[in-house]
Amino acid sequence: MSAIALRRRRSASGSSALGLGVATLWLSVIVLLPLAAVVVRSLDDGTGTFWDAVTSRQALAALRFTLLVSLVCAAINAVTGTLIAWVLVRDRFPGKRVLNALIDLPFALPTIVAGITLMALYGSNSPVGIDIAFTQAAVLLALLFVTLPFVIRAVQPVLIELDREMEQAAISLGASNLTVFRRIILPNIVPAILSGAALAFARAVGEFGSVVLISGNIPLQTQVSSVYVFKLIESDAEISASAVSVVLLLVSLLVLIGIRLLGRFDPTHRRHDG
Amino acid sequence: MTVDRRWRIGLRVLGLGYLAALLLIPVSVIFYRTFEHGVTSVLDSITTPQAVSAFWLTIEVSVIAVVLNTVFGVVCALALARGRFRGKWLLDALIDLPFAVSPIVIGLSLVLVYGTNGWFGSALTNAGIQVIFSFPGIVLATIFVSLPFVVREVTPVLREIGDDQEQAAATLGASGWQTFWRITLPAIRWGIAYGVVLSTARAIGEFGAVSVVSGHISGETITLTLLVEQRFQNYDLSGAYAASALLAVIALATLLAMTTFNRRKEESEA
User: Fold this and answer.
1) What domain count does chain B have?
2) Which terminus of chain A, N or C, has less C-beta within 10 A?
Protein backbone atom coordinates (compact mmCIF):
# COMPACT_ATOMS: atom_id res chain seq x y z
CA MET A 1 0.00 0.00 0.00
CA SER A 2 1.38 3.37 -0.95
CA ALA A 3 2.13 6.00 1.66
CA ILE A 4 -0.47 8.42 0.26
CA ALA A 5 -3.25 5.86 0.33
CA LEU A 6 -2.28 4.90 3.87
CA ARG A 7 -2.31 8.53 5.00
CA ARG A 8 -5.64 9.10 3.33
CA ARG A 9 -7.16 6.11 5.02
CA ARG A 10 -5.82 7.20 8.39
CA SER A 11 -7.09 10.78 8.07
CA ALA A 12 -10.48 9.62 6.81
CA SER A 13 -10.95 7.24 9.71
CA GLY A 14 -9.75 9.92 12.13
CA SER A 15 -12.26 12.52 10.97
CA SER A 16 -15.10 10.02 10.83
CA ALA A 17 -14.33 8.87 14.39
CA LEU A 18 -14.52 12.50 15.52
CA GLY A 19 -17.78 12.94 13.61
CA LEU A 20 -19.20 9.80 15.16
CA GLY A 21 -18.24 11.05 18.62
CA VAL A 22 -19.88 14.43 18.05
CA ALA A 23 -23.02 12.85 16.59
CA THR A 24 -23.36 10.39 19.46
CA LEU A 25 -22.74 13.05 22.10
CA TRP A 26 -25.26 15.46 20.59
CA LEU A 27 -27.92 12.77 20.26
CA SER A 28 -27.27 11.57 23.83
CA VAL A 29 -27.48 14.99 25.45
CA ILE A 30 -30.47 16.25 23.48
CA VAL A 31 -32.54 13.09 23.08
CA LEU A 32 -31.43 10.02 24.99
CA LEU A 33 -30.63 11.53 28.38
CA PRO A 34 -34.02 13.27 28.74
CA LEU A 35 -35.90 10.17 27.58
CA ALA A 36 -33.94 8.08 30.09
CA ALA A 37 -35.03 10.54 32.78
CA VAL A 38 -38.67 9.79 31.93
CA VAL A 39 -38.13 6.05 32.34
CA VAL A 40 -36.22 6.49 35.61
CA ARG A 41 -38.77 8.94 37.07
CA SER A 42 -41.67 6.64 36.21
CA LEU A 43 -40.15 3.97 38.48
CA ASP A 44 -39.22 6.32 41.35
CA ASP A 45 -41.92 4.92 43.63
CA GLY A 46 -41.57 1.33 42.47
CA THR A 47 -43.32 -0.81 39.89
CA GLY A 48 -46.56 -0.88 41.89
CA THR A 49 -47.06 2.87 41.54
CA PHE A 50 -46.07 2.65 37.88
CA TRP A 51 -48.68 -0.03 37.27
CA ASP A 52 -51.39 1.87 39.17
CA ALA A 53 -50.68 5.04 37.15
CA VAL A 54 -50.85 3.18 33.84
CA THR A 55 -53.96 1.15 34.69
CA SER A 56 -56.03 3.89 36.32
CA ARG A 57 -59.47 4.15 34.74
CA GLN A 58 -58.74 7.47 33.05
CA ALA A 59 -55.27 6.44 31.83
CA LEU A 60 -56.59 3.19 30.36
CA ALA A 61 -59.53 4.90 28.68
CA ALA A 62 -57.24 7.54 27.18
CA LEU A 63 -54.77 4.93 25.97
CA ARG A 64 -57.47 2.71 24.51
CA PHE A 65 -59.06 5.64 22.67
CA THR A 66 -55.68 6.91 21.45
CA LEU A 67 -54.64 3.56 20.01
CA LEU A 68 -58.05 2.91 18.48
CA VAL A 69 -58.44 6.32 16.86
CA SER A 70 -54.84 6.18 15.59
CA LEU A 71 -55.48 2.77 14.09
CA VAL A 72 -58.64 3.99 12.35
CA CYS A 73 -56.71 7.06 11.17
CA ALA A 74 -53.92 4.88 9.74
CA ALA A 75 -56.44 2.61 8.00
CA ILE A 76 -58.32 5.54 6.42
CA ASN A 77 -54.97 7.02 5.35
CA ALA A 78 -53.98 3.74 3.72
CA VAL A 79 -57.07 3.95 1.46
CA THR A 80 -57.33 7.68 0.80
CA GLY A 81 -53.55 8.11 0.60
CA THR A 82 -53.25 5.42 -2.05
CA LEU A 83 -56.17 6.91 -3.96
CA ILE A 84 -54.75 10.44 -3.89
CA ALA A 85 -51.27 9.20 -4.81
CA TRP A 86 -52.77 7.38 -7.78
CA VAL A 87 -54.70 10.49 -8.87
CA LEU A 88 -51.56 12.63 -8.55
CA VAL A 89 -49.40 10.19 -10.55
CA ARG A 90 -51.72 8.78 -13.20
CA ASP A 91 -54.38 11.42 -13.70
CA ARG A 92 -54.00 14.72 -15.56
CA PHE A 93 -55.90 17.86 -14.64
CA PRO A 94 -55.18 21.60 -14.43
CA GLY A 95 -53.57 22.74 -11.18
CA LYS A 96 -52.07 19.34 -10.42
CA ARG A 97 -48.62 20.70 -9.64
CA VAL A 98 -49.94 23.25 -7.17
CA LEU A 99 -52.08 20.59 -5.52
CA ASN A 100 -49.09 18.26 -5.33
CA ALA A 101 -47.14 20.93 -3.46
CA LEU A 102 -50.07 21.64 -1.14
CA ILE A 103 -50.14 18.01 0.03
CA ASP A 104 -47.22 18.84 2.34
CA LEU A 105 -49.12 21.72 3.97
CA PRO A 106 -50.05 19.66 7.08
CA PHE A 107 -46.31 19.12 7.68
CA ALA A 108 -45.55 22.83 7.31
CA LEU A 109 -48.55 24.18 9.19
CA PRO A 110 -48.15 24.38 12.99
CA THR A 111 -50.39 21.79 14.65
CA ILE A 112 -52.17 24.36 16.81
CA VAL A 113 -53.09 26.26 13.65
CA ALA A 114 -54.40 23.01 12.18
CA GLY A 115 -56.60 22.63 15.25
CA ILE A 116 -57.92 26.20 15.06
CA THR A 117 -58.48 25.79 11.33
CA LEU A 118 -60.62 22.68 11.76
CA MET A 119 -62.50 24.33 14.63
CA ALA A 120 -63.32 27.29 12.38
CA LEU A 121 -64.92 25.02 9.77
CA TYR A 122 -66.26 22.10 11.80
CA GLY A 123 -66.76 23.78 15.20
CA SER A 124 -69.62 25.62 16.89
CA ASN A 125 -69.57 28.57 14.46
CA SER A 126 -69.40 26.32 11.42
CA PRO A 127 -70.27 28.15 8.21
CA VAL A 128 -71.40 24.83 6.67
CA GLY A 129 -73.51 23.80 9.66
CA ILE A 130 -71.39 20.83 10.70
CA ASP A 131 -70.51 21.05 14.39
CA ILE A 132 -68.50 18.07 15.60
CA ALA A 133 -66.29 19.89 18.13
CA PHE A 134 -65.54 17.95 21.32
CA THR A 135 -66.49 14.58 19.83
CA GLN A 136 -64.42 11.51 19.02
CA ALA A 137 -65.05 12.21 15.33
CA ALA A 138 -63.36 15.59 15.74
CA VAL A 139 -60.24 13.92 17.15
CA LEU A 140 -60.17 11.57 14.16
CA LEU A 141 -60.59 14.51 11.79
CA ALA A 142 -57.67 16.39 13.36
CA LEU A 143 -55.47 13.29 13.16
CA LEU A 144 -56.43 12.73 9.52
CA PHE A 145 -55.40 16.32 8.79
CA VAL A 146 -51.95 16.14 10.35
CA THR A 147 -51.15 12.66 8.96
CA LEU A 148 -52.42 13.32 5.42
CA PRO A 149 -49.02 13.39 3.63
CA PHE A 150 -47.49 10.17 5.01
CA VAL A 151 -49.09 7.50 2.81
CA ILE A 152 -49.32 9.77 -0.25
CA ARG A 153 -45.62 10.61 -0.09
CA ALA A 154 -44.68 6.96 0.50
CA VAL A 155 -46.76 5.56 -2.38
CA GLN A 156 -46.16 8.30 -4.98
CA PRO A 157 -42.51 7.48 -5.85
CA VAL A 158 -43.27 3.76 -6.09
CA LEU A 159 -46.18 4.39 -8.45
CA ILE A 160 -44.00 6.64 -10.62
CA GLU A 161 -41.34 3.93 -10.87
CA LEU A 162 -43.84 1.15 -11.54
CA ASP A 163 -43.43 -0.52 -14.89
CA ARG A 164 -46.49 0.23 -17.01
CA GLU A 165 -45.91 -2.66 -19.40
CA MET A 166 -47.25 -5.20 -16.95
CA GLU A 167 -50.51 -3.30 -16.68
CA GLN A 168 -50.81 -2.92 -20.44
CA ALA A 169 -50.14 -6.63 -20.91
CA ALA A 170 -52.82 -7.49 -18.35
CA ILE A 171 -55.34 -5.17 -20.01
CA SER A 172 -54.62 -6.61 -23.45
CA LEU A 173 -55.17 -10.10 -22.02
CA GLY A 174 -58.63 -8.97 -20.96
CA ALA A 175 -58.13 -8.09 -17.30
CA SER A 176 -60.51 -5.55 -15.82
CA ASN A 177 -59.38 -2.34 -14.12
CA LEU A 178 -60.10 -3.84 -10.73
CA THR A 179 -58.10 -6.98 -11.51
CA VAL A 180 -55.16 -4.93 -12.72
CA PHE A 181 -55.22 -2.89 -9.54
CA ARG A 182 -55.62 -5.88 -7.25
CA ARG A 183 -53.17 -8.24 -8.96
CA ILE A 184 -50.51 -5.90 -10.37
CA ILE A 185 -50.48 -2.42 -8.81
CA LEU A 186 -51.42 -3.31 -5.25
CA PRO A 187 -48.77 -6.00 -4.60
CA ASN A 188 -46.10 -3.53 -5.70
CA ILE A 189 -47.22 -0.69 -3.48
CA VAL A 190 -48.30 -2.60 -0.36
CA PRO A 191 -44.93 -2.14 1.44
CA ALA A 192 -45.06 1.60 0.77
CA ILE A 193 -48.68 1.81 1.97
CA LEU A 194 -47.81 -0.09 5.15
CA SER A 195 -44.77 2.00 6.01
CA GLY A 196 -46.67 5.23 5.30
CA ALA A 197 -49.59 4.04 7.44
CA ALA A 198 -47.21 3.01 10.24
CA LEU A 199 -45.65 6.49 10.25
CA ALA A 200 -49.14 8.01 10.31
CA PHE A 201 -50.05 5.75 13.23
CA ALA A 202 -46.95 6.75 15.21
CA ARG A 203 -47.62 10.41 14.57
CA ALA A 204 -51.29 10.05 15.54
CA VAL A 205 -50.49 8.31 18.84
CA GLY A 206 -48.29 11.19 19.98
CA GLU A 207 -50.23 14.07 18.44
CA PHE A 208 -51.07 16.96 20.77
CA GLY A 209 -51.36 20.41 19.19
CA SER A 210 -54.14 19.71 16.72
CA VAL A 211 -56.33 17.70 19.12
CA VAL A 212 -55.91 19.67 22.34
CA LEU A 213 -58.57 22.26 21.46
CA ILE A 214 -60.93 20.31 19.23
CA SER A 215 -61.13 17.24 21.50
CA GLY A 216 -62.52 19.24 24.42
CA ASN A 217 -60.48 16.86 26.58
CA ILE A 218 -63.50 15.06 28.07
CA PRO A 219 -62.13 12.30 30.35
CA LEU A 220 -63.16 8.74 29.36
CA GLN A 221 -64.55 10.06 26.06
CA THR A 222 -62.41 12.33 23.91
CA GLN A 223 -59.27 12.53 26.05
CA VAL A 224 -56.21 11.21 24.23
CA SER A 225 -53.07 10.07 26.05
CA SER A 226 -50.88 13.04 25.14
CA VAL A 227 -53.46 15.50 26.50
CA TYR A 228 -53.91 13.30 29.59
CA VAL A 229 -50.14 13.42 30.20
CA PHE A 230 -50.22 17.20 29.75
CA LYS A 231 -52.94 17.51 32.40
CA LEU A 232 -50.89 15.30 34.76
CA ILE A 233 -47.83 17.53 34.25
CA GLU A 234 -49.93 20.62 34.96
CA SER A 235 -51.11 19.10 38.25
CA ASP A 236 -47.51 18.18 39.17
CA ALA A 237 -48.16 14.42 39.02
CA GLU A 238 -44.74 13.80 37.48
CA ILE A 239 -44.53 10.09 38.28
CA SER A 240 -47.92 9.27 36.75
CA ALA A 241 -47.14 11.48 33.76
CA SER A 242 -43.82 9.65 33.30
CA ALA A 243 -45.47 6.23 33.60
CA VAL A 244 -48.03 6.96 30.87
CA SER A 245 -45.23 8.54 28.78
CA VAL A 246 -43.22 5.32 29.05
CA VAL A 247 -46.15 3.43 27.52
CA LEU A 248 -46.32 5.98 24.69
CA LEU A 249 -42.54 5.67 24.22
CA LEU A 250 -42.86 1.89 23.96
CA VAL A 251 -45.54 2.25 21.28
CA SER A 252 -43.26 4.64 19.31
CA LEU A 253 -40.32 2.25 19.62
CA LEU A 254 -42.39 -0.71 18.44
CA VAL A 255 -43.61 1.23 15.40
CA LEU A 256 -40.05 2.37 14.55
CA ILE A 257 -38.79 -1.22 14.78
CA GLY A 258 -41.74 -2.39 12.69
CA ILE A 259 -40.94 0.12 9.95
CA ARG A 260 -37.28 -0.96 9.93
CA LEU A 261 -38.26 -4.62 9.60
CA LEU A 262 -40.72 -3.72 6.85
CA GLY A 263 -37.91 -1.92 5.01
CA ARG A 264 -35.73 -5.02 5.28
CA PHE A 265 -38.31 -7.32 3.72
CA ASP A 266 -39.35 -4.85 1.07
CA PRO A 267 -37.97 -5.90 -2.34
CA THR A 268 -38.78 -2.55 -3.98
CA HIS A 269 -36.81 -0.49 -1.46
CA ARG A 270 -33.39 -2.01 -1.28
CA ARG A 271 -31.60 -0.11 1.46
CA HIS A 272 -28.05 1.10 0.89
CA ASP A 273 -26.11 -0.16 3.86
CA GLY A 274 -22.47 0.77 4.02
CA MET B 1 -54.09 5.57 -19.68
CA THR B 2 -54.96 2.01 -18.84
CA VAL B 3 -57.94 3.05 -16.79
CA ASP B 4 -61.09 4.02 -18.58
CA ARG B 5 -62.46 7.52 -18.37
CA ARG B 6 -65.36 6.82 -16.03
CA TRP B 7 -63.12 5.30 -13.36
CA ARG B 8 -60.53 7.98 -13.71
CA ILE B 9 -63.00 10.84 -13.27
CA GLY B 10 -64.63 9.04 -10.34
CA LEU B 11 -61.34 8.53 -8.54
CA ARG B 12 -60.32 12.10 -9.28
CA VAL B 13 -63.54 13.48 -7.76
CA LEU B 14 -63.15 11.27 -4.69
CA GLY B 15 -59.51 12.18 -4.13
CA LEU B 16 -59.93 15.89 -4.73
CA GLY B 17 -63.12 15.98 -2.67
CA TYR B 18 -61.32 14.45 0.30
CA LEU B 19 -58.46 16.95 -0.06
CA ALA B 20 -60.91 19.84 -0.32
CA ALA B 21 -62.93 18.89 2.74
CA LEU B 22 -59.93 18.09 4.91
CA LEU B 23 -57.30 20.56 3.76
CA LEU B 24 -58.17 23.22 1.22
CA ILE B 25 -61.52 24.50 2.52
CA PRO B 26 -60.47 24.69 6.21
CA VAL B 27 -57.30 26.62 5.36
CA SER B 28 -59.27 29.00 3.12
CA VAL B 29 -61.79 29.52 5.92
CA ILE B 30 -59.00 30.63 8.26
CA PHE B 31 -57.91 33.31 5.82
CA TYR B 32 -61.52 34.36 5.24
CA ARG B 33 -62.21 34.61 8.99
CA THR B 34 -58.99 36.57 9.48
CA PHE B 35 -59.70 39.23 6.91
CA GLU B 36 -63.48 39.30 7.46
CA HIS B 37 -63.20 42.53 9.51
CA GLY B 38 -60.66 44.24 7.28
CA VAL B 39 -56.92 44.34 6.98
CA THR B 40 -56.27 47.05 9.59
CA SER B 41 -57.66 45.04 12.49
CA VAL B 42 -55.45 42.13 11.43
CA LEU B 43 -52.40 44.39 11.31
CA ASP B 44 -53.27 45.81 14.73
CA SER B 45 -53.64 42.34 16.14
CA ILE B 46 -50.27 41.05 14.89
CA THR B 47 -48.39 44.20 15.93
CA THR B 48 -49.38 44.29 19.60
CA PRO B 49 -46.33 44.19 21.93
CA GLN B 50 -47.16 40.58 22.87
CA ALA B 51 -47.42 39.50 19.26
CA VAL B 52 -44.18 41.25 18.27
CA SER B 53 -42.30 39.73 21.19
CA ALA B 54 -43.75 36.29 20.37
CA PHE B 55 -42.67 36.70 16.76
CA TRP B 56 -39.07 37.59 17.65
CA LEU B 57 -38.83 34.87 20.29
CA THR B 58 -39.97 32.34 17.70
CA ILE B 59 -37.39 33.60 15.20
CA GLU B 60 -34.51 33.60 17.74
CA VAL B 61 -35.32 30.11 18.98
CA SER B 62 -35.69 28.74 15.45
CA VAL B 63 -32.43 30.25 14.22
CA ILE B 64 -30.44 28.78 17.13
CA ALA B 65 -32.07 25.37 16.81
CA VAL B 66 -31.75 25.18 13.04
CA VAL B 67 -28.08 26.28 12.97
CA LEU B 68 -27.08 23.75 15.64
CA ASN B 69 -29.10 20.97 14.02
CA THR B 70 -27.62 21.73 10.60
CA VAL B 71 -24.04 21.40 11.88
CA PHE B 72 -24.94 18.26 13.79
CA GLY B 73 -26.94 16.94 10.85
CA VAL B 74 -24.08 17.20 8.36
CA VAL B 75 -21.56 15.67 10.79
CA CYS B 76 -23.95 12.87 11.63
CA ALA B 77 -24.86 12.23 7.98
CA LEU B 78 -21.15 11.96 7.12
CA ALA B 79 -20.66 9.46 9.95
CA LEU B 80 -23.68 7.42 8.79
CA ALA B 81 -22.86 7.51 5.07
CA ARG B 82 -19.06 7.26 5.17
CA GLY B 83 -18.14 5.74 8.50
CA ARG B 84 -17.82 2.07 9.28
CA PHE B 85 -18.37 1.27 12.92
CA ARG B 86 -20.17 -1.16 15.15
CA GLY B 87 -23.64 -0.09 16.26
CA LYS B 88 -24.19 2.08 13.20
CA TRP B 89 -27.69 0.67 12.73
CA LEU B 90 -28.47 1.72 16.30
CA LEU B 91 -27.39 5.33 15.73
CA ASP B 92 -29.31 5.28 12.46
CA ALA B 93 -32.46 4.06 14.21
CA LEU B 94 -32.18 6.40 17.22
CA ILE B 95 -31.95 9.48 14.99
CA ASP B 96 -35.62 8.96 14.10
CA LEU B 97 -36.79 8.95 17.73
CA PRO B 98 -37.82 12.65 17.80
CA PHE B 99 -40.22 11.94 14.91
CA ALA B 100 -41.95 9.16 16.79
CA VAL B 101 -42.04 10.53 20.34
CA SER B 102 -45.02 12.63 21.42
CA PRO B 103 -44.15 16.33 21.85
CA ILE B 104 -45.65 16.21 25.34
CA VAL B 105 -43.29 13.40 26.33
CA ILE B 106 -40.42 15.47 24.94
CA GLY B 107 -41.44 18.44 27.07
CA LEU B 108 -41.81 16.27 30.16
CA SER B 109 -38.41 14.66 29.59
CA LEU B 110 -36.73 18.08 29.55
CA VAL B 111 -38.53 19.11 32.75
CA LEU B 112 -37.27 15.93 34.44
CA VAL B 113 -33.66 16.73 33.52
CA TYR B 114 -33.48 20.52 33.77
CA GLY B 115 -36.45 21.43 36.02
CA THR B 116 -35.99 22.43 39.68
CA ASN B 117 -36.59 18.83 40.82
CA GLY B 118 -34.78 17.39 37.83
CA TRP B 119 -31.42 15.63 37.51
CA PHE B 120 -29.46 18.83 36.96
CA GLY B 121 -32.02 20.99 38.79
CA SER B 122 -30.08 21.86 41.95
CA ALA B 123 -26.79 22.30 40.08
CA LEU B 124 -28.45 24.71 37.64
CA THR B 125 -30.23 26.59 40.43
CA ASN B 126 -26.93 27.02 42.29
CA ALA B 127 -25.33 28.32 39.12
CA GLY B 128 -28.22 30.75 38.72
CA ILE B 129 -29.34 29.31 35.40
CA GLN B 130 -33.02 28.78 34.73
CA VAL B 131 -33.73 26.41 31.86
CA ILE B 132 -37.34 25.33 32.30
CA PHE B 133 -39.99 28.09 32.05
CA SER B 134 -37.32 30.15 30.31
CA PHE B 135 -35.57 30.73 26.99
CA PRO B 136 -33.04 27.84 27.15
CA GLY B 137 -35.81 25.30 27.75
CA ILE B 138 -37.71 26.46 24.67
CA VAL B 139 -34.50 26.21 22.63
CA LEU B 140 -33.79 22.68 23.91
CA ALA B 141 -37.34 21.54 23.12
CA THR B 142 -37.10 23.00 19.63
CA ILE B 143 -33.71 21.38 18.98
CA PHE B 144 -35.13 18.03 20.12
CA VAL B 145 -38.15 18.07 17.80
CA SER B 146 -36.28 19.30 14.72
CA LEU B 147 -33.17 17.15 15.17
CA PRO B 148 -33.60 14.46 12.47
CA PHE B 149 -34.47 16.57 9.41
CA VAL B 150 -31.03 17.57 8.09
CA VAL B 151 -29.56 14.11 8.82
CA ARG B 152 -32.42 12.42 6.98
CA GLU B 153 -32.14 14.67 3.93
CA VAL B 154 -28.33 14.71 3.63
CA THR B 155 -27.51 11.02 4.30
CA PRO B 156 -29.19 9.64 1.13
CA VAL B 157 -27.55 12.35 -1.02
CA LEU B 158 -24.13 11.42 0.38
CA ARG B 159 -24.76 7.74 -0.36
CA GLU B 160 -25.97 8.56 -3.84
CA ILE B 161 -22.94 10.65 -4.87
CA GLY B 162 -20.49 8.09 -3.46
CA ASP B 163 -16.98 8.93 -2.33
CA ASP B 164 -15.03 8.62 -5.63
CA GLN B 165 -14.40 12.36 -5.91
CA GLU B 166 -13.52 12.67 -2.24
CA GLN B 167 -10.99 9.85 -2.61
CA ALA B 168 -9.53 11.44 -5.72
CA ALA B 169 -9.15 14.76 -3.89
CA ALA B 170 -7.47 13.05 -0.95
CA THR B 171 -5.11 11.15 -3.25
CA LEU B 172 -4.11 14.45 -4.87
CA GLY B 173 -3.13 15.68 -1.43
CA ALA B 174 -6.18 17.62 -0.26
CA SER B 175 -6.70 17.78 3.48
CA GLY B 176 -9.92 16.56 5.08
CA TRP B 177 -11.23 20.14 5.39
CA GLN B 178 -10.33 21.01 1.80
CA THR B 179 -12.11 17.90 0.54
CA PHE B 180 -15.16 18.75 2.60
CA TRP B 181 -15.37 22.40 1.53
CA ARG B 182 -14.49 21.91 -2.15
CA ILE B 183 -16.04 18.53 -2.96
CA THR B 184 -18.55 17.27 -0.42
CA LEU B 185 -20.34 20.48 0.60
CA PRO B 186 -21.13 21.69 -2.95
CA ALA B 187 -22.56 18.26 -3.76
CA ILE B 188 -24.88 18.15 -0.75
CA ARG B 189 -25.89 21.80 -0.62
CA TRP B 190 -29.45 21.32 -1.91
CA GLY B 191 -29.97 18.41 0.43
CA ILE B 192 -28.88 20.65 3.30
CA ALA B 193 -31.11 23.48 2.06
CA TYR B 194 -34.11 21.14 1.96
CA GLY B 195 -33.35 19.84 5.44
CA VAL B 196 -32.98 23.39 6.75
CA VAL B 197 -36.39 24.36 5.35
CA LEU B 198 -38.04 21.34 6.97
CA SER B 199 -36.29 22.02 10.30
CA THR B 200 -37.28 25.68 10.22
CA ALA B 201 -40.92 24.85 9.56
CA ARG B 202 -40.95 22.39 12.43
CA ALA B 203 -39.07 24.77 14.75
CA ILE B 204 -41.44 27.67 14.08
CA GLY B 205 -44.49 25.46 14.38
CA GLU B 206 -43.62 23.41 17.46
CA PHE B 207 -46.32 23.66 20.08
CA GLY B 208 -46.65 20.69 22.46
CA ALA B 209 -43.06 20.38 23.71
CA VAL B 210 -42.66 24.14 23.96
CA SER B 211 -45.99 24.43 25.77
CA VAL B 212 -44.73 22.14 28.56
CA VAL B 213 -41.41 23.95 29.12
CA SER B 214 -42.44 27.55 28.42
CA GLY B 215 -44.31 28.51 31.59
CA HIS B 216 -46.44 30.87 29.46
CA ILE B 217 -44.93 34.12 30.73
CA SER B 218 -46.56 36.84 28.64
CA GLY B 219 -44.07 38.92 26.65
CA GLU B 220 -41.21 36.59 27.65
CA THR B 221 -41.73 32.90 26.91
CA ILE B 222 -44.75 32.99 24.60
CA THR B 223 -43.91 31.85 21.09
CA LEU B 224 -46.23 32.45 18.13
CA THR B 225 -47.93 29.06 18.43
CA LEU B 226 -48.45 29.57 22.16
CA LEU B 227 -49.89 33.01 21.39
CA VAL B 228 -52.46 31.40 19.09
CA GLU B 229 -53.58 29.06 21.85
CA GLN B 230 -53.55 31.77 24.52
CA ARG B 231 -55.75 34.06 22.45
CA PHE B 232 -58.10 31.22 21.60
CA GLN B 233 -58.46 30.27 25.28
CA ASN B 234 -59.11 33.93 26.15
CA TYR B 235 -61.96 34.05 23.61
CA ASP B 236 -59.98 36.47 21.42
CA LEU B 237 -60.97 34.57 18.30
CA SER B 238 -60.05 37.20 15.72
CA GLY B 239 -56.65 37.61 17.42
CA ALA B 240 -56.10 33.86 17.30
CA TYR B 241 -57.10 33.76 13.63
CA ALA B 242 -54.76 36.64 12.79
CA ALA B 243 -51.77 34.92 14.46
CA SER B 244 -52.78 31.65 12.78
CA ALA B 245 -52.92 33.34 9.40
CA LEU B 246 -49.43 34.73 9.95
CA LEU B 247 -48.17 31.21 10.72
CA ALA B 248 -50.07 29.84 7.72
CA VAL B 249 -48.36 32.38 5.46
CA ILE B 250 -44.98 31.23 6.85
CA ALA B 251 -46.06 27.63 6.15
CA LEU B 252 -46.98 28.47 2.56
CA ALA B 253 -43.61 30.19 2.07
CA THR B 254 -42.02 27.02 3.45
CA LEU B 255 -43.90 24.94 0.88
CA LEU B 256 -42.65 27.15 -1.91
CA ALA B 257 -39.05 26.79 -0.67
CA MET B 258 -39.54 23.02 -0.30
CA THR B 259 -40.75 22.64 -3.87
CA THR B 260 -37.82 24.65 -5.21
CA PHE B 261 -35.10 22.99 -3.13
CA ASN B 262 -36.49 19.50 -3.60
CA ARG B 263 -36.29 19.89 -7.37
CA ARG B 264 -32.69 21.15 -7.12
CA LYS B 265 -31.86 18.29 -4.77
CA GLU B 266 -33.26 15.69 -7.14
CA GLU B 267 -31.39 17.25 -10.04
CA SER B 268 -28.13 17.09 -8.08
CA GLU B 269 -28.80 13.45 -7.15
CA ALA B 270 -29.58 12.46 -10.71
Assistant:
1) 2
2) N
Picking from A91, A104, A248, the nearest residue to B12 by CB comes out as A91
Out of A108, A127, A199, whose CB is closest to B251?
Answer: A108
Q: B-chain residues within 8 Å CB-CB of A8?
A: 167, 170-171
Claim to verify: residue A86 and residue A160 sit in the same structural domain? yes
Q: Are A116 and B232 a contacting pair at CB < 8 A?
A: yes
Q: What is the pTM of this model?
A: 0.91
Using H for helix, E for strand and C for coil, what is the string for chain B? CCCCHHHHHHHHHHHHHHHHHHHHHHHHHHHHHHHCCCHHHHHHHHCCHHHHHHHHHHHHHHHHHHHHHHHHHHHHHHHHHHCCCCCHHHHHHHHCHHHHCCHHHHHHHHHHHHCCCCCCHHHHHHCCCCCCCCHHHHHHHHHHHHCHHHHHHHHHHHHHHCCHHHHHHHHCCCCHHHHHHHHHHHHHHHHHHHHHHHHHHHHHHCCHHHHHHHCCCCCCCCCHHHHHHHHHHCCCHHHHHHHHHHHHHHHHHHHHHHHHHHHHHHHHHC
Q: How many domains does chain A have?
A: 2
Q: pLDDT tens across B122-136, in order? A: 899 899 999 999 999
Surface of A (31-70) touching B: CB under 8 A: 31-35, 37-38, 41
Residues of A with CB below 8 A from B93's CB? 256-257, 260
Residues of chain A with pLDDT under 50: 1-2, 5-11, 267-274
Q: What percent of chain B has pLDDT over 90?
A: 70
Contacts of B208 in chain A (CB under 8 A): 111, 208-209, 212, 226, 230
| ipTM summary value | 0.91
Query: Do residue B115 and residue B163 come from a single domain?
Result: yes
